[in-house]
Amino acid sequence: MQTPSIVLNVNGIEVIYNHVILVLKGVSLQVPEGGIVALLGGNGAGKTTTLRAISNLLKGERGEVTKGSIELRGERIENLTPADLVKRGVVQVMEGRHCFAHLTIEENLLTGAYTRHDKAEIARNLEKVYTYFPRLKTRRTSQAAYTSGGEQQMCAIGRALMANPSVVLLDEPSMGLAPQIVEEVFNIVKDLNDKEKVTFLLAEQNTNMALRYADYGYIMESGRVVMDGPAVELANNEDVKEFYLGMGGGERKSFRDVKSYKRRKRWLA
Ligand SMILES: Nc1ncnc2c1ncn2[C@@H]1O[C@H](COP(=O)(O)OP(=O)(O)OP(=O)(O)O)[C@@H](O)[C@H]1O
Ligand SMILES: [Mg+2]
């Protein structure tokens, strides 16, 4: 089988907020064409910052990439605007969903097509979104504020799809949702990946769920990638199980603590 080409290549990036706070300390990752890559790690690990660096949404947060490079299909993109990136097929679905509360679901979806002008094409796209998210079709005239958390997450993803992206950066799709709904959302992600060939880079604290759907994962801690590998390998890795899948029992420490603890244990044994 041919190895898939790399869509996104993040190469040793550093990100600083407010000119002084160094948050990403040399992050590198690669996303293959047609893949689902999970960016994992606990609170404050740097997942959102990494996604924002890629989609160039750091400025509003007073953040900037100070080192390293980001390439989309081999082309440097650090200096493109978020709108340029949307035109090139890279869209981010923000953490916390951010639907426009006073607009209906359909109006929300249509805002996602703001870079496009072909009305017939937009209408076809809307129908396609509804085939993947039938729940949104039944709620199309409801104000987003009165829909459930799951429907709002679907609306946020559906809106991103209205830009006809090839790469979706999805930030914590499971946040605040019941397990059954998380499963429903992830199944749709998988479906979009299979049938529409949309590539996903998804940030998740829900390691267990993300590794079930992703092909490959990167684990972040304190602004660095501490481990990466095929999803199946990460899901079966003892350290990952102990610290992120909560199967080891006992108190959860940092990933680096575990590794040095294990080294010590081996040393003493
Ligand atoms: N606008 C900002 N200004 C200053 N520091 C920030 C800003 N945004 C994030 N940070 C800091 O950067 C670090 C990484 O945050 P980030 O939001 O990227 O983590 P995360 O992995 O997405 O966490 P979570 O899972 O909680 O969403 C944290 O220490 C956070 O406090
Ligand atoms: Mg985050």
TrEMBL record:
Q: What InterPro entries does its record include? A: AAA+_ATPase, ABC_transporter-like_ATP-bd, BCAA_Transport_ATP-bd_LivF, P-loop_NTPase
Tagged with keyword Transport: yes
One MF term in GO for this entry?
A: ATP binding
What range(s) does the ABC transporter domain occupy? 8-247
The answer on whether this UniProt entry bears the keyword Lipid biosynthesis reads no
UniProt keyword terms in alphabetical order: Amino-acid transport, ATP-binding, Cell membrane, Membrane, Nucleotide-binding, Transport
- Example GO BP: L-amino acid transport
The record's comment on protein family reads: Belongs to the ABC transporter superfamily.
What is this protein's record name?
Amino acid/amide ABC transporter ATP-binding protein 2 (HAAT family)
| High-level lineage | Bacteria, Pseudomonadati, Pseudomonadota, Betaproteobacteria, Burkholderiales
